[in-house]
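Friendly challenge for the regulars: who can give me the structure tokens for this chain first? No prize, just bragging rights.
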Amino acid sequence: MKLEQRFPAGPPITIDELLADLDLGGDPGVLTVGDDRVVDFLTRFARILLTPAVYRAFPELGPLGFFLRRSELQRIIEGLSPADDRRLRFPRGVVFHVPPANVDTIFVYSWALAALTGNRNVVRISPRSGGAASAVLDALNQAAVDADPLITRTQKLVTYDRDDTVTAGLSLACDLRVVWGGDDAVAGLRRHPLRPSARDITFPDRASFAAISVAGWEASSAVGRQTAIAGFVNDAYWFDQAACASPRTVFWVGETAAAERARVEFRALLVAETNRRGIVVEPGMAVHNRVSAYGLAAAGAVTAIGFDGNSATHLELAEPAAAPRTWLGAGMFPHTTVARLDDLVSLISRKDQTLSCFGFGREELETFVRRLAGRGIDRVVPFGSALAFSAVWDGYDLPAEFTRLVTLPAGL
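First reply, four minutes later:
Bragging rights claimed.
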């Protein structure tokens, strides 16, 4: 079977040809952790993503370009510096990335960090990936024009239809496999064995929530509330609310009557913001949303349903424990009220990833996280930052995971 070469762009190749190109052997030009050639390439790529033509067409690529700015890359590299000279850090080797099709730019973050740490990478781009992925690939190929030739030899982004032979071959060849997707996707990839010295990093199904302090909402200015809603729209509507970090249930924390008043304003501001941006939920998705809403109502999980046109569907949960963890559709927002943030502790599970917040103080959030004790919630972020990728994701310190340490004896 031939693989379509997306980066570097080229004619179809076989898996054997791909792996032969990656086999650098003892090449003295092999990449190192924090290699300047990679930093230069990534920053050039980031500048292309941040050009108005790209950013306006695909706003979700703006945060990616910002993440790959030179100062951020240098900060990540400095964070890997050992505390003493008895430890040397090296790339892990060949990293095989399998990203999802529904969030079609997530692969760039893990790939970029793996490249920054000197690894040779193979990324499978789904044939179902969308326009944002194509824009990324175009930008990568533009950035490669002036890059060191070792970049295009060690970084391979390919597309192929589901083929167990190819996936099995790449799995056996890699030192680390990075799997994004649902639980079924992870289980399917794990059918293909790794070499004994290799291992997986997996990003399976996760759920995320929003929490709003009623007191914090009331104390905020009108501008502060509008800013919060703008951030919430970014968190919820990019990727059709299908990203693992997109908020699904909205928890209102505080007194019930005040929460009900705040919700009315929240809905009005949300309608105004989606209208201002021209956000449209397509008719097919709107039908899907209604089916999801009525299904939850029939199951007794929802006591009230409100539609704000096609752009937003608001559900009143029968109880906080009924918070759904599955994707219901774009612009679907179950709501419920709890008296205290601590009331959420018993509801959180290991499946839960991001809590995006508004109106809470740092001390209150830290107390909440300490009560969870690592049982769930890997990230607590303000509204507008749920989809902002960081080098620590799902509890993994990715730059560290993409490297290995060699220790030297003390005193030498």
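The two ends are 52 Å apart (CA to CA). The chain has two domains: 3-205+396-407, 207-392. Your move, everyone else.
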